[in-house]
Write a structure and sequence with these properties.
Layout: E1 2-5, H1 19-30, E2 35-38, H2 41-51, H3 53-62, H4 65-71, H5 74-83, H6 85-99, H7 111-134, H8 141-151, E3 157-161, H9 169-179, E4 184-187, H10 199-205, E5 210-212, H11 219-228, E6 239-243, E7 246-248, E8 280-283, E9 286-288, E10 307-309, H12 312-325, E11 330-333, H13 340-352, E12 359-364, H14 373-381, E13 384-392, H15 396-402, H16 408-421, E14 424-431, H17 438-450, E15 457-462, H18 470-473, E16 480-486, E17 489-495, H19 501-517, H20 536-544, H21 550-558, E18 566-569, E19 571-576, E20 579-584, H22 591-596, E21 602-603, H23 606-614, H24 621-631, H25 633-636, H26 638-655, E22 658-661
Parallel strand pairs: 1-2, 1-3, 3-4, 4-5, 8-11, 11-12, 12-13, 13-14, 14-15
Antiparallel strand pairs: 5-6, 6-7, 9-10, 16-17, 18-22, 19-20, 20-21
Helix pairs in contact: 2-6, 3-6, 6-7, 8-9, 12-13, 13-14, 14-16, 23-26, 24-26
Length: 672
């Protein structure tokens, strides 16, 4: 048996299972090799919020005064000293059970709850990162728990999928090796960013026995078969290991025959344990990047600079098979970028296969081929409801330096075409590219503001240098000098012209502060969702259910044209002076605004309470009116009760504490 660990990282919440691990499980099964999955992010999420809150409190209380100040934990430690660890443990569990276990859809749109979830994730990241990386501690409960699970069942070998984020698996590997001398195999997309010349250093610093580079559906089963027979994997390409203290192995190009790969196997994953209220699965139409020219990017390195596609027929076959096998309606087509010509073929094939009832989200580059209302309409008919675009910059000069192959006018045209078609645009950009001035960074912010009605979600970051990117390979060409590197990653650098990294970071933080207090200035999506990675899939699910934007909702409420909409009222039910009251939460404002200016509490009678409980996304306004009217017909008369219910729902929609969707929600099964 082979034990495979899904990536275990601190600084990213999961919104779907890991496609690479699912592909490896299927590939090994094809060769008769049993694989046992140790879940990563969904398990880790439950550990953080349900099991390890007391350890987190103890770690914070045990920090030295200097460490507390450096980590920004002074306020938290004082609160723990006054209130005791129990309040933190209880609140962690409360947030998890409300947001993650999917009991109520409304909790996913409660700005205070979702922001608190993100804040706690950052807290774990800082504290555990300090203990693992700075203090070198391997005795943490979360590490010991993973070690126990990985060694269960007496595996012949253990595999880890490396991740570029804060990955705790190194500590786990050390403990596994100390307890038992089982062969340890590492792989994953991150391996493509590690130069072969650095493998000596890697093997010396990490208890790794075999290093698998690139795609592993063929190489991993071959390696495991050799190990089972007591042989070295000599001659198997893309596997590196030490022989007599010397690293040996050879690289080979990836396979172009993607159609021969088995369908990914998600059976061992916790498909309902992510933050998403409905199940989402990943799939791909191609591997690699068709463009491969962006100077800041190294994603193409994961496919050795190639672009290879599944046949369109195989893609639609996989899509239909996964939808049926795992009862899933929402899919992320997680290609590096889906080119417009291929997107047109994929969309038509999905329609021809009768799969247009599925809802799809993918990634693209805003090029001329996408500035096409007809193509956007075809994609919408095929079920595409959201695209994530690499905007990167609102300056044509910077776009040219980045070699994006587009310009500001074209990008605006793409956003307009997709907005017209009803596909939600999510854009990502960053400031601080080498040579960028503050004025050019401001142009990016101005572009988003000018196109805010066509942007559902934005994410603005600060430039960082990816290993194997053109900027990393040729720093002099971009006016850079590297001042410090750690394990191949550039952690400090000097620019010849433009903003420094610190100046870019300050610009970004200043913008994000303004964005948090006024998201509607730059986007038209659901404003209560916290900015960043957490909200991208929730915004997609909102689009997949036909969320009505604020402007259109105001018009429909004014015309009392809401009967077919499925409302989600967002509020806490609290005890008031005269019975139950509702504490509404704004769905169009960020948590910072909601906390500073909370909406007024509303006294709640039995009828309003019944309407509130029914308005959770599964029922239309007409159905809620009819149900509540029937329930209170004896007390008030059916017609009067229906009118009272309808007035209550209109009030919630007009006052901004309710979202409305064209399609009903069906929540995923609850988890722990």
């Amino acid at each position: 048996m082979f034990t495979l660990a899904e990536p275990i990282v601190f600084d990213q919440f999961t919104d779907r299972p890991h496609l690479g691990c699912a592909m490896l499980i299927a590939a090994c099964a094809k060769h008769g090799i049993d694989v046992r999955l140790v879940r990563g992010q969904t398990r880790f999420l439950a550990d953080m919020f349900l099991r390890d809150g007391d350890e987190l409190a103890d770690l914070v209380l045990g920090l030295a005064d200097g460490e507390v100040a450096a980590l920004g934990m002074t306020g938290l430690r004082q609160a723990l000293q006054v209130r005791g660890p129990e309040w933190l443990v209880d609140d962690l569990r409360r947030v998890y059970r409300r947001v993650v276990t999917h009991g109520e859809l409304r909790d996913c749109f409660d700005a205070d709850l979702t922001t608190r979830l993100v804040e706690y994730e950052k807290l774990f990241n800082v504290v555990y990162g300090h203990c693992l990386l700075r203090q070198g501690r391997d005795d943490l409960r979360i590490v010991e728990r993973y070690v126990d699970e990985m060694l269960a069942g007496d595996p012949a070998a253990i595999g880890f999928s490396l991740h570029g984020s804060f990955d705790i698996s190194r500590a786990v590997r050390r403990c596994v090796k100390q307890r038992r001398g089982i062969p340890i195999v590492v792989g994953g997309s991150h391996t493509s960013y590690i130069a072969v010349s650095r493998l000596d250093e890697l093997f010396a610093s990490d208890p790794i026995d075999y290093f698998v580079v690139g795609e592993a559906e063929a190489t991993l089963p071959a390696l495991l078969e050799e190990l089972a027979d007591g042989r070295e994997p000599e001659g198997i390409p893309n596997i590196f290991y030490r022989r007599g203290g010397v690293v040996v192995g050879d690289k080979a190009p990836p396979s172009h025959d993607l159609d021969s790969l088995p369908a990914p196997d998600f059976a061992q994953f916790d498909l309902d344990g992510s933050l998403m209220p409905e199940r989402v699965l990943p799939v791909m139409t191609a591997r690699g990047c068709s463009w491969r020219k962006c100077t800041f990017c190294a994603h193409h390195a994961t496919s050795e600079g190639t672009y290879r596609g599944f046949s369109i027929e195989r893609f639609t076959e996989l899509l239909g098979e996964l939808a049926e096998r795992y009862d899933c309606r929402h899919f992320v087509v997680q290609d590096e970028e889906l080119p417009p010509a291929r997107a047109r073929k994929v969309a038509q094939a999905v329609i021809d296969a009768g799969l247009e009832h599925l809802r799809l989200y993918t990634y693209g580059r805003m090029v001329k081929g996408y500035a096409d209302v007809d193509l956007a309409g075809l994609l919408h008919r095929a079920g595409f409801r959201s695209y994530q675009w690499g905007l990167e910059s609102g300056s044509d000069r910077i776009l040219e330096l980045m070699c994006k192959g587009t310009d500001v006018a074209t990008m605006a045209g793409v956003l307009r075409a997709f907005k017209t078609a009803g596909i939600a645009n999510q854009v990502c950009a960053f400031v601080g590219f080498p040579g960028e001035t503050r004025e050019e960074a401001q142009a990016t912010v101005d572009f988003m503001e000018a196109n805010s009605d066509a942007i559902a979600r934005m994410a603005l970051g600060t430039f960082s240098i990816d290993p194997m990117s053109p900027v990393w390979l040729e720093p002099e060409r971009f006016g850079l000098s590297f001042d410090a590197t750690v394990e191949g990653f550039v952690v400090d650098y000097t620019v010849r012209n433009g903003m420094t990294h610190d100046e870019a970071e300050a610009f970004n933080q200043d913008f994000l502060t303004r964005y948090w207090f006024d998201p509607a200035r730059w986007t038209s999506g659901v404003g209560c969702l916290p900015p960043g990675v957490h909200s991208r899939m929730t915004q997609f699910l909102c689009a997949a259910h036909g969320v009505v934007d604020r402007k259109d909702l105001v018009a429909r409420v004014a015309g009392d044209d809401v009967g077919d909409l499925h409302p989600v009222l967002v509020a806490d039910v609290v005890a008031g002076a005269h019975g139950f009251e509702l504490q509404p939460r704004s769905v169009w404002e960020a948590a910072q605004v909601s906390r500073a200016r909370p909406l007024k509490r509303r006294p709640t009678g039995a009828l309003e309470r019944a309407a509130f409980e029914r308005a959770g996304g599964a029922h239309s306004v007409d159905d809620i009116d009819a149900d509540v009217g029937g329930a209170f017909a004896g007390e008030r008369g059916r017609e009067t009760a229906e009118r009272a219910c309808h007035a209550f729902l209109l009030t919630a929609l007009s006052e901004g504490w309710a979202l409305a969707f064209a399609e009903p929600w069906v929540l995923s099964g609850t988890v722990e």
